[in-house]
Design the sequence.
């Protein structure tokens, strides 16, 4: 019984890390995606400065999620990584390019245009690769015995491309909402306009992806549309409509922070929907969390470390956001 509990706990920790990565790194990747649409000069500098104090630490949660998967569910890691080598490598290269561009646009102002383009390219590649990886996982991974048995291009499909584009739209929405919260003047007004438009596109994309997902595995259709489970799952679309209404109302009332948190709520509902579709599998319809779990002693040993480190990460993250809680002015200062 204790082994069961530890497996579920570790699934929760990894899910928690993924959720916080989306929350923390999504908006700064989104700003990179939107970057070409901002005026060269003070507007771009203001957008950059709004994430400068926090962007690097946001990726801590990606490391925790990936490391936790390796340590707590080694069989799943051994299958998923070969299946998704290409998008994972693309994601890492995109994150590296974004990081280099972020630093060098300040240190090499003579080539700032090049670094701005690199910042957008890195952010877009990383985001698209993450979405493609999610789509590839949802559509299914070919397994034979205890290993990956698919081909090099199995991850690439119209569905995975759709999820990649959808995540780019979603992160761009978070980026626009963040700029509405943290900036002022013309850039803030531009961000509000983009947020209103992007939310519509995101809802349409979510609808198309949701309908397509139901055709991928019988498990998905059963979870969502058969009675009596449909009585519970129907609350997710209803909650989405309510959150969307509250999002647009907060934009209309010219609120600074509220649209960002309502946009996060939309992502939260998507993550809940993802959980409904695949739980308790780590590889949908193929490998459960218990089949992929590390031995009990290993999970217990790692849980002690996670119990000590995760609160520390939360504390310093909260402190950094609190210190830089104000708006960024046109002069680049909080």
Sequence:
């Amino acid at each position: 019984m204790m082994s069961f509990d530890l497996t579920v706990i570790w699934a929760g920790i990894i899910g928690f890390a993924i959720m916080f990565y989306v929350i923390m790194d999504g908006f700064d990747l989104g700003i990179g995606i939107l970057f070409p649409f901002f005026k060269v000069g003070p507007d771009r500098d203001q957008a950059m400065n709004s994430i400068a104090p926090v962007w690097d630490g946001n990726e801590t949660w990606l490391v925790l999620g990936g490391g936790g998967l390796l340590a707590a569910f080694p069989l799943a890691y051994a299958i998923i990584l070969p299946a998704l080598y290409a998008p994972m490598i693309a994601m890492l290269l995109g994150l590296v390019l974004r990081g280099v561009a972020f630093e060098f646009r300040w240190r090499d102002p003579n080539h700032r245009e090049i670094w701005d383009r690199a910042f957008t390219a890195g952010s877009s590649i990383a985001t698209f690769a993450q979405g493609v990886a999610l789509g590839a996982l949802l559509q299914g991974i070919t397994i034979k015995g205890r290993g990956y048995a698919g081909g090099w291009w199995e991850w690439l499909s119209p569905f995975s491309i759709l999820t990649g584009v959808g995540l780019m739209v979603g992160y761009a929405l978070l980026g626009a909402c963040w700029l509405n919260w943290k900036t002022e003047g013309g850039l803030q007004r531009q961000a509000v306009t983009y947020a209103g438009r992007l939310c519509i596109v995101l809802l349409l994309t979510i609808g198309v992806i949701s309908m397509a997902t139901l055709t991928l595995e019988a498990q998905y259709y059963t979870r969502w549309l058969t009675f009596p489970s449909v009585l519970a799952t129907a609350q997710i679309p209803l909650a989405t409509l309510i959150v969307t209404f509250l999002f647009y109302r907060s934009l209309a009332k010219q609120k600074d922070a509220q649209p960002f948190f309502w946009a996060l709520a939309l992502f939260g509902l998507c993550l809940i929907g993802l959980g409904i579709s695949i739980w308790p599998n780590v590889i949908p319809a193929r490998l459960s969390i218990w089949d992929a779990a590390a031995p009990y002693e290993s999970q217990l040993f790692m849980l002690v470390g996670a119990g000590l480190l995760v609160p520390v990460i939360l504390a310093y993250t909260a402190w950094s956001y609190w210190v830089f809680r104000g708006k960024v002015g046109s002069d680049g200062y909080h």
Q: What stands out?
A: The two ends are 51 Å apart (CA to CA). DSSP finds 15 helices and four strands in the chain. The chain has one domain: 2-319. The first strand starts at residue 143 and ends at 144.
